[in-house]
Design goal:
Distance between the termini: 70 Å
CATH topology of the largest domain: Topoisomerase I, domain 2
Strand order of the largest sheet: 9-10-16-15-12-17
Mean pLDDT: 90
CATH class of the largest domain: Mainly Alpha
């Protein structure tokens, strides 16, 4: 019997899709991600021997590795088809190390998209493993290990609790904390605006805003100044001094890459970064369309590149011409370039060829998959279309010393806006002539106050990290997850708010590990990762530079004092300072007196140091066992609840007796409920699902 070719991919879902494309000469298996890593219990890096890493087979992978070795022994050759990025290259390298004793004919194949043509072409062109990419991934892994395993224990000793630090994680937290400090230090200032609704010789009326006085920009600091201006305006007519018309082009946007996909999915659908990447992974690995064979619907979703293959570009242009017309295709195809070097020479995120229109396959996708696919589809085709032609009109309206301005915009030719319809807005100004005297229909004066900068959302945090060149978009979801897990941040209206603990951690790291917390230093490390991947830098140079700075900082903090997390409160029993501490017994934070053990006063607190009341015995008896009910605080849900005092023998729980009033729609009592999706409480009708009222705000 002829031997077969063994292909090893990362995930079973991809394995299932690929097996449909290849004949009997291939066997498809999955590594289920990484098979080797640094040991979990120790550093795993020989700091005295050129930072030699010690890799070991991952726990739980013994049977899988044994099976892969058995398959490799009976195979003609082995194709390693892990994902086409640095992480995938490292997986392929470790598989090669494991399997080379069983089969010497081991090759690398790259699947940028999971479609029949792409798979068949890739297996015809096997490659060697890219040692430079492997070195780059190893450098990143060792940098992260050094930062995590060397700094995290310092935080645990000096502050307490299961704290962690990370090369990118701590920088992300620093951004959130710095923004919060800006917000707290912000002093709001009053200012006023004036606008007037005007009507000329033709409808419609339009609104113009006051912008200048005596030819200079105007600021209105208070009501008195505003009233003076309003009085002046009554003395003169509103005259259309000037009509300016200008034609301009609005350029087509680039196709999506990992970071912009994450940002757009959050902006449009409020999808967390983790959810977006999960949905994109499903679209990449393959779905069954219209009862046919499974196929990947998008190209690989971890990419920094705007590049588009010639085949995809040509077919996109043909599709645009056929559906919209030749004028919607630019004479010369659009080419987009990044300002900085990109990680890999992959394509952008685009639909696979042949294209599947979103509406045609909507029935085969779940709602989340469809939204992400539609986003990728629209953005890709928009990127290949002609620029939009815009005519801008500006009215300059004079009134004595004052100048009002109104701007309008008409889309003369939609171009790419024919696809990105939500991005096109038209404000049409009437066809008026210069020197017309206009009728004032209404004058609006409004008091305003300057606002502090907005807290970061997942999308804006991803954007600023990418702008600063810190981390990779493919890792941002894990970083955000860790910040929440460590209780460094929490979410409020989908914005990150740092906890007191998160602020203390950043302050400590800023004081003692300035290089690690420096934006430029961290960004330079990312550039070094790129240079290693390109073969222009030895990975040992990068790790040596990093560790020498880290070692100096570690030596300085060795004998440093422990950080006392003062809450600002006083002990009600002895008057001592209250300090936030971590309990190994309860695995939670609490507040205790600084005079312990002489004074043993303690109180439980929330993430924001709000006191948690002690268990309160209720007058009502448990309906199941008759024991008294008790009101207590749940650390898991961070809310009060009423349960049986006989727990754990009796597990009866009921809603809090807090009176939230009647539902305005059906009259039933309102109740606090925990959202499984957001893990936050909201107020809704107790009559759900018959009544779906949810209280806003």
């Amino acid at each position: 019997m002829a031997k077969k070719t063994l292909i090893i991919v990362e995930s079973p879902a991809k394995s299932h899709t690929i097996s449909k494309y290849l004949g009997d000469g291939f066997v498809i298996s999955s590594s289920m991600g990484h098979v080797r890593d640094l040991p979990a219990a120790v550093l795993g890096i020989d700091l005295k021997n050129n930072y030699k890493p010690f890799y070991e087979d991952l726990p739980g992978k013994a049977l899988l590795i044994k099976d892969l070795r058995k398959q490799a022994r009976s195979a003609e050759q082995v194709f390693l088809a892990s994902d086409p990025d640095r992480e995938g290259e490292a997986i392929a390298f470790h598989l090669q190390q494991i399997l080379q004793a069983d089969n010497r004919k081991i090759f690398r194949v790259l699947f940028n998209e999971i479609t029949r043509p792409a798979i068949l072409e890739a297996v015809q062109r096997p490659l060697a493993i890219d040692a430079h990419k492997v070195d780059s991934q190893q450098l990143r892994r060792l940098l992260d290990r050094l930062a995590g395993y060397k700094i995290s224990p310092v935080l645990q000793r000096k502050i307490g609790g299961p704290l962690s630090a990370g090369r990118v994680q701590s920088i992300a937290l620093k951004l959130i904390v710095e923004r919060e400090k800006e917000i707290r230090a912000f002093v709001s200032e009053e200012f006023w605006t004036v606008a007037v609704e005007l009507l000329g010789s033709h409808k419609p009326a339009f609104t113009a805003k006051l912008e200048k006085c005596d030819g200079k920009g105007i600021e209105i600091p208070n009501r008195e100044r505003c009233e003076t201006i309003l009085a002046d305006l009554k003395q003169n007519d509103y005259v259309l001094d000037r009509v300016q018309k200008k034609s301009k082009k609005r350029k087509a946007p680039p196709p999506l890459i990992t970071s912009t996909l994450q940002q757009e999915a959050f902006r449009r659908f409020k999808f967390p970064v983790k959810k977006t990447m999960q949905l994109a992974q499903q679209l990449y690995e393959g779905l069954t369309i219209r009862g046919g064979e499974a196929t990947g619907l998008i190209t690989y979703m971890r990419t920094d590149s705007f590049r588009v293959s010639d085949q995809a570009r040509d077919q996109a242009r043909a599709h645009i011409t056929a559906t919209l017309g030749k004028e919607y295709c630019p004479a010369v195809p659009n080419v987009f370039k990044r300002k900085s070097k990109i990680q890999d020479a992959h394509e952008c995120i685009r639909p696979t060829v042949p294209f599947h229109a979103p509406d045609e396959i909507k029935a085969d996708l779940n709602p989340g998959q469809f939204r992400v696919y539609q986003l990728i589809w629209d953005r890709f085709f928009a990127s290949q279309m002609a620029d939009a032609a815009i005519e801008e009109t500006q009215f300059n309206v004079g009134n004595g010393r004052y100048l009002f301005v109104s701007k309008g915009e008409i889309v003369k030719f939609q171009g790419f806006l024919a696809v990105l319809k939500g991005d096109s807005e038209q404000t049409v100004l009437a066809p008026l002539q210069e020197k017309e005297i206009l009728q004032a229909l209404r004058v609006d004066d409004k008091q305003n106050f300057t606002k502090p900068p907005a807290r970061y959302s997942e999308a804006t945090l991803v954007k600023v990290l990418e702008e600063k060149g810190i981390g990779r978009p493919s890792t941002y979801a894990k970083i955000i997850e860790t910040l929440n897990k460590r209780e460094y941040v929490y979410s409020e209206e989908k914005k990150f708010v740092p906890t007191d603990l998160g602020i203390r951690v950043v302050d400590y790291l800023e004081e003692n590990f300035r290089d690690i917390m420096n934006y430029n230093f961290t960004a330079e490390l990312e550039k070094e990762l790129d240079l290693v991947a390109e073969g222009q830098l030895d990975w040992l140079v990068g790790i040596d530079r990093f560790y020498k700075k880290l070692a100096v900082d570690l030596e300085k903090v060795k004998d440093g004092k422990k950080v006392e997390m003062l809450t600002g409160g006083k002990c009600p029993e002895c008057g001592g300072d209250l300090i936030k501490k971590y309990s190994l017994r309860t695995r939670g934070w609490f507040v205790g007196c600084c005079n312990y053990p002489r004074c043993k006063y303690t109180e439980r607190v929330t993430l924001n140091n709000e006191k948690i009341n002690k268990d309160e015995i209720m007058e009502k008896a448990c309906p199941e066992c008759g024991k008294p009910l008790v009101k207590r605080y749940s650390p898991r849900t961070r809310q009060y609840f009423i349960g049986c005092s006989g727990y754990p023998a009796c597990r009866h729980i009921e809603n809090s007796a807090e009176d939230l009033g009647p539902c305005p729609q059906c009259g039933k009592p309102l109740a606090k409920k925990l959202s499984r999706k957001t893990r936050r409480y909201f107020t809704g009708c107790s009559g759900y699902p018959d009544c779906k009222y949810v209280q806003k705000g």
